[in-house]
Amino acid sequence: FLLLALIYLFSKGRAIFLFLRFAGPSFIKLGQILSVRSDIVGAEISDILSGFYDKLPPSCPKKVRKILRDEFGDNFNKIFKEFNFTPVASASIAQVHKAILQTGEEVAVKILRPKIDKIMRRDIDSVYLLSKLVTPFSKFAKKFFFDISSLLSGVAKYELDLLHEAANASKLREDLKDVKGFYVPNIFWQFSSQKILVLEWLDGIPFSDIEAVKDAAFDRNEIAKNLVISYFNQVYVHGFFHADMHPGNLFLLKNGDIGVVDFGIMGKIDKKTRLAIAEILIGFL
Question: Which of 3, 27, 132, 236 has the most CB atoms at less than 10 Å from its CB?
């Protein structure tokens, strides 16, 4: 804490990043959520927190092999022709590996971190207990910590079951199949489970690499238009939308389309609310 205090004096954003980093996976997820809210935390802190997208230390290959063995057993070599045990992305709850199926198809294999359910439960209970401890001193602090524990509980409920994420991806893919310039990868249900998700590999530039996206030979206005139209289709037409669409989850594909990944957190809006929001938007325009 003394070290964090010293860092805070020189860089508030860096101190917040390190605190969340060492506090645990649940707090890292909180950092990911805050990273896209520069309107709340400011541009500098938002940029620092973007380091939580997919650059965290991965689980060791030995633990990954154990999870794969527990889930697939002797079928592992029958399913995968090649499997890279060095992850291409490593986040707070899961990490992603590139593999090739026996059919020759390139896939992304998302694997939950070992014992992540117990770790997140511990983090959530700690924040909830903190909300109780500060109750006599500050009603604001009590609500603040209680809201965080509720948010993290919701995240844990949906993101710790990769079959739930697979279902979200399949529905979103069906909803947006006719939308131009936006692509949702196919799910390989036969190889997926609660702890492992196998989906189509997307080869492209992550939106978090701003300079690379700028240098790409595509019309950025068209890319932006496709992103907005796809999102309006999700929200206003279907009432089912990707609720974690930060730059680390979006890719500029080789054909100029936008590819999206990570479907653990989705939002739903009923028809009455959608119409009300649309009327407000029309009135504003």
Answer: 27
Q: Which among 40, 76, 35 has a CA at the least distance from the CA of 52?
A: 35
State the DSSP string of 61-95.
HHHHHHHHHHHHGGGHHHHEEEE--S-SEE-SSEE
pLDDT tens by residue, 66-120: 889 888 988 888 999 999 999 998 877 889 999 999 999 999 999 998 888 888 8
Tokens for 149? 């524990």
Q: How many Å apart are CA 85 and CA 64, to the nearest integer?
A: 8
Residue 48: closest CA among 60, 61, 38: 38
Which residues, in sequence order, are bridge partners of residue 196? 111
Helix-strand-coil split of the chain, %, nearest 5:
55, 15, 25
Tokens, residue 100: 């090739």
- Are 115 and 70 spatial neighbours (Cβ–Cβ below 8 Å)? no
Number of residues in the chain: 285
H-only helix segments in the chain: 2-10, 12-23, 25-35, 38-41, 43-49, 61-72, 76-79, 116-133, 139-159, 162-175, 210-215, 220-232, 271-284
| pLDDT surpasses 80 at 241 | yes
User: Structure tokens of 215?
Assistant: 């240098």
41: CB partners within 8 A, 6+ apart: 34, 49
Residues annotated as catalytic are 244
Compute how many other C-beta atoms are within 10 angstroms of the C-beta atom of residue 274.
15
Global confidence as pTM: 0.79
